[in-house]
Amino acid sequence: MSLNFEILSADTSGGRLGRLATPHGEVLTPMFMPVGTRASVKGMPPFLLKEAGATILLSNTFHLGLRPGSGLIRDLGGVHRFMGWEGPILTDSGGFQVFSLKGLRRVNEEGIAFRSPVDGAEIFLSPERSVEIQEELGVDVAMALDELVPGDAPRAAMAAAMERTTRWARRCQAAKQRKETALFGIVQGGMEEDLRTRSAADLTSLDLQGYAAGGFSVGEKKETFRRMAAFTAALLPQEKPRYLMGVGTPLDLVDASGWGYDLFDCVLPTRNARNGSLFTSRGTVSIKNAEHVRDETPLDATCPCWGCRHISRAYLNHLYRADDPTGLVLNTLHNLPFYLGLMARIRNAIGDGTLPELREEMAGAYEKAEGGA
Amino acid sequence: MSLNFEILSADTSGGRLGRLATPHGEVLTPMFMPVGTRASVKGMPPFLLKEAGATILLSNTFHLGLRPGSGLIRDLGGVHRFMGWEGPILTDSGGFQVFSLKGLRRVNEEGIAFRSPVDGAEIFLSPERSVEIQEELGVDVAMALDELVPGDAPRAAMAAAMERTTRWARRCQAAKQRKETALFGIVQGGMEEDLRTRSAADLTSLDLQGYAAGGFSVGEKKETFRRMAAFTAALLPQEKPRYLMGVGTPLDLVDASGWGYDLFDCVLPTRNARNGSLFTSRGTVSIKNAEHVRDETPLDATCPCWGCRHISRAYLNHLYRADDPTGLVLNTLHNLPFYLGLMARIRNAIGDGTLPELREEMAGAYEKAEGGA
Predict the structure, then answer these.
(1) At what angle do helices A325-352 and B325-352 cross, to 10 degrees?
(2) Which three-class secondary structure state does DSSP give residue B281?
(3) Which of B42, B75, B306 is closest, CB to CB, to A326?
(4) Residue in chain B lying closest to A64 (CA)
(5) Strand locations in B266-305, DSSP E?
(6) Could you tell me the pTM of the whole model?
(7) Contact, A304 vs A337, CB < 8 A?
(8) pLDDT digit string (tens) for B51-61?
(9) What's the complex ipTM?
(10) DSSP state string for B47-85
């Protein structure tokens, strides 16, 4: 087996503390995966990622397949060696990125044809090719190619895409060649409980190594997301890792860990760092705001990151206004430890049965800000 | 005294090994100062600068005076605290940056009027104001405001600017208020030996804490630079620190250390890192070149930096092409240790009397590339 998942303890809510053993080391779950789209978390060499508390990364089949190409990375010894990251790596299948190309793609049963945004070349991504790219990269966890539809698509389109996603998962499973690759299937079905139920049942029958909930963060209401993501978690096998894709805010991570999800990824901590939007124990701080120009206090006095121990909001504001890359580095070195430290607190809270208290604390800092989302 | 300079040993060539004690710690000389224009070496938080071997930084009066303003930095406790760098900081006077504004400035005996490139405001930089800004920043070494003229200016203009620079140095000395501030004068006089001689003699009579050679890297031939920079070093007091401004290449640093200079600054290691031009024991490597796309070798197998121990030229090439800021960080984390490691080798070579052998080694790697400069 490429993957070994062990549940160490579970709380009454459904949250569980787990250990995921991969060919590149172990990960305690629930865990957040920083996003390293092009085999790099922007501005963060792996030794800084390690210091920030990262133990597993997400990278992108779509981007790496286009540039520098998965064959090149295979020839150079795989993506871990390429980027100098020794821990586990999970890649998405490319489905979400191709979905985002909108007018530039055509989908049929065979796969997805699209024009390369790099050089305009016509590219065909089939389930088999998606797995092949991910195996060339040599990742620990490959995601099966899924078909996405817009959040407001009619039910029939949702159902068709969900069914195709299951057929594609079967083809991915048949295409997989390396025993070191774990393949996860992606549950789709929009916001329809019966479609999600069928998707989960059909994928579970394939006995894949893990399961993800996809199709969220596509414009649905927050309450709908909460209801459907919790509903979907309960459909997935207890004994296998569950991955909630593209989620989320600090509060989402607490909630979804309580629903029984084990893995998360999201661009929020890294992209927001670059935009000057910083996570603190008291909510989000937009460091570019004029109120910080002369503010000599640390960003977050409770945070152990280098910046919070050594420099002020005024300095971060100055770096942001000067468009100085040191700002990007310091901001990311704050936001990532915030997320990864939150995951450690979530794991402790599951162990202690205190997840509701942690939820209350995070809601105090973040619920108001998220209310409209 | 704000500054204590002790010569530990000298070799027969004129090179000397020294120790510069400042209010923010000691610096072994000869030493290279990384350039942190806006109170930041781009992409390098201070803890990484320390790891790279930096012991003293240069920052810019001109840039910090404009944004965020020296009064703000004073109110926040000075530039060391502002940027979280505990070691010594030297600032240039702003003369060179204002000189670069060309059409936007007017110089008279009182000072330099120019339009702010930030907001178009009319600004007046006098010798007194330059010192005031540097004392508001709270730097360890302030540079006296100098007047620069183009490298091809007629001799009369060179002489007039040199004489004004001396008068301005006297005004800077009179304006200085903090005993913690060391003030260095700047020898000018173009490529004319008699003007340089008079400049050095007049400034020496002011008994400043250190002396710099300015007016180089303004388009002069390499041989002219070498002759005049060596000539100027010999004009300066033995017992005080000598700073060769804006220089230079690895070979320049070896040569100028042999001429008796103690301090250097240059944008080359940091700016070139951002442009993908990397210093190695075998000469410069342009990492963006197609030859590196599939190159699995390290940038420099003899280099102890994280990148050279963990990732390949192919990965650095990928990061450069993807315009990923991790490339900027890794490249700077290579170039700076190369420069600072070279300074350590220079200091050892002065102690051992082996500077000629080090010069020969560097010439083998770099002279060809510098031939046309």
Answers:
(1) 110
(2) coil
(3) B42
(4) B318
(5) 277-280, 283-286
(6) 0.97
(7) yes
(8) 999 999 999 99
(9) 0.97
(10) HHHHHTT---EEEEHHHHHHTT-HHHHHHTT-HHHHHT-
